[in-house]
Amino acid sequence: MNEHFTVAVASMTMKLLLQHRAIVSQKGPYFRVSSNEQDEFVTITCNPSKLIQKKIDETFAHELQTLLYGRPVILVNGRGLWLLVGKERAREMDWTPVALDLSKQPTPWSLPIGMTKNGDLWVSLLERYSFLIAGLPGKGKSAMLHGFVQALLHGEKTDVWAWDGKDDLEYGRYADCPHFTLIPVHRLQDKLSEIANIAKERRIKMAPSGMTNIVDWNVENQDDPFNPIALVIDEIAEVKDQEKLLHLVSLCRASGVYPIFATNNPGKATVVAKSQIGTRIAFKVVSHNDSSTILGYPSAEKLPDVRGRGLILHSGLTEFQGYLISYPKPSDAVRQMLAEQSGIPAPATQKDADDEQVRKLIELDVESDAAIVRLVWGVSGGASYYRLKSKVEAMRKTSSSSKIGSSGQKTAENRPFAEEEVQEMLG
Length: 427
Prior knowledge:
The chain contains 15 helices and 14 strands. By secondary structure, the chain is an alpha/beta fold. It has 3 domains: 85 residues; 220 residues, P-loop containing nucleotide triphosphate hydrolases (Rossmann fold); 94 residues, no CATH class. Strand 3 and strand 4 form a beta hairpin. Helix 12 packs antiparallel against helix 13 and helix 13 crosses helix 14. The protein starts with a helix and ends with a helix.
């Protein structure tokens, strides 16, 4: 067994060295694999004159561990460079998702990532500075963003400005929370200008002290600190001028603007993806190209098809299972505000509001139940999405408003309306 295992380790190591283009010499030996029967580990000793040592990093070790079906791989870089590979598979982690517990938030600026093999992982907004999150719809991206927003609001020391790129409903539920600013879908540029003005005022105030960033300012002015601004943009691919946005964020960095960008489509957000964003997070994506665009490495396309499972580029690639997120229901005041924006009168109670708006959209013959769920509740994923979708489907079946011709087919004049047309009808 020992001989076969050593050969397998050598084969997978060589495969990765070629993939990472870590070989600088045409002739080996590039590394040596050694082990004794009594050893728990196989040792891979690298030849520094034949390899690019910086490419043999924590990410390399993580990928080798994946190729060896979960056997632990430990990178050792002291007097020389070598890796220790466990002969036995690491004990399987219990990936069962758990609910986010904000009472465990380490600092007011800590953001919840999820459970890892080393325990719960929270990262600091102030230390990581900028975030890019990507993944297929329904895989956990939106839930993570809501977790970030909820954690920062819970900490009460960060001002959150959020834009969802759709219909204001995704983050409208937080509109009456302290420290939160909802960016209306059609007013992104206006609000970005407001943020730029705030940043300018801060720079002017800091100038006489000689300080150039809010971290130093807040240390010296604890009675008059500047709150960090978390700029949450849910679908960065929908922003037309991504370069202008990145330029603004770059100018405002020292003034405490921290971008948190997300996308379902990395291919349409390449300007942002190729920028100097510090923390990269990927849920399952379609291809290794998408994974490489976001993380700089292939891997996210190989993630299990499980909601909330992802990778974060954090001291190498770290796999995590995202937390279960509870979505707060909008208050009556928020529902009234959003209803006024959409042109639909808001009934007195939430249940009446839900039912009335659903019936109205069914009468308009909106083409899909999913579109109605997005329009009424602003939900596009998670368990609540499927529950609400089933509710709409049931209401559609029992509705007497179905415009079906005598032949059983929908007539041309009663064709279903597209979601864009409904948005226009509703204001």
